[in-house]
Amino acid sequence: MSLERTLTVRVERISRQTPEILAFELAHPWGRPLPSYEAGAHIDVHMPGGFSRQYSLARAPSAASAGRYVIGVKRELASRGGSASMHERVREGDLLPISAPRNTFPLREEATHHLLLAGGIGMTPLLAMAQALAARGAAFTLCVFARSEEHLAFADALHAPALAPHLRLHLDQGDASSQRIDLRSLLAQRAPGTHLYVCGPGGFMQAVRDAAAHWPEDALHTEYFAAPADAGAVTGLPFTLKLARRGITVPVAADQTAVDALHEVGIDIPVSCQQGLCGTCVVEGDGEGAEHRDFCLTGSERRHKVALCCSRAKGLELELQL
Ligand code: FES
């Protein structure tokens, strides 16, 4: 396996958004524009202590953003080190290696209305998407779920004139009559052409999925921070990878991932999260023949793509365009 090429950015500004969330503005060290991206994209941040985490870009690309990136980092109580490292060890002026932006959560061109549901820090990609939609005059609604106003990150951007008419806030500790969104009634009916995008903590994602269980799969788009608690293992029965372009087969043992098996024969597939979340390891292949265990591909993408860090063959063989 291999890590993707990195670039170095300078931490231009750190601002506290809530008691638990800091925003980091990242710029090119010599003032050049950073690589362009589309709303919904994320980057890998390689931080002090050897940790690497994915963070969504929380601002739509625009002339005003001057090629800079903004990420929001919530300090997790159960941090395995990543969010604690960002909060405690990273300071303004520091240089950080990051990956180029990658987008597995894009806005769908075919949608006639976009319904964006954000839980807590999950608002970061959806904020960028809402800004992009507002800039192009598209029809959208942004629903943000937070504990209270005090726990609402990027409040200035949310309340900006371009977004305010599209914003619905659900505050757990807010005024019960005016600031509650009932997911079941919100999602009970789907107007034709509406696409639903959701990002937030695991429980929130599940609640949305349950309430939208009757929505067509291709109209529901999710971005997970971590694999759901009930996610299956990435190992399983042995199978064979058939590499169509090379004309060879590669065995995958029961305790191996496809990425590991390919690495053993000298074929390096770039990886990042290794949990099926980020899309870095996705390749073209016979998706119909795969047992998909990722959380980043849509139903239609799964017909011809496979995330090799976690997915396996349904049967004895899986063909890939490698
Ligand atoms: S490495 Fe992230 S989806 Fe496979």
UniProtKB/TrEMBL annotation:
> Per the UniProt entry, what are the Gene Ontology biological process annotations, in alphabetical order?
methylation
Against InterPro entries, the record matches this protein to:
2Fe-2S_ferredoxin-like_sf (IPR036010), 2Fe-2S_ferredoxin-type (IPR001041), 2Fe2S_fd_BS (IPR006058), Beta-grasp_dom_sf (IPR012675), DmmA-like_N (IPR054582), FAD-bd_FR_type (IPR017927), FNR_nucleotide-bd (IPR039261), MRET (IPR050415)
Its domain of life?
Bacteria
Stretches assigned to the FAD-binding FR-type domain: 4-108
**Could you say which cofactors this protein requires?**
FMN
> Which UniProt keywords are given for this protein, alphabetically ordered?
2Fe-2S, Flavoprotein, FMN, Iron, Iron-sulfur, Metal-binding, Methyltransferase, Oxidoreductase, Transferase
Top class in the EC scheme: oxidoreductase
In this chain the 2Fe-2S ferredoxin-type domain maps to 237-322
Reported EC number(s) for this entry are 1.14.13.82
Q: Write one Gene Ontology MF term.
A: methyltransferase activity
Protein name in the entry: Vanillate O-demethylase ferredoxin subunit
Q: What is the lineage of its organism?
A: Bacteria, Pseudomonadati, Pseudomonadota, Betaproteobacteria, Burkholderiales
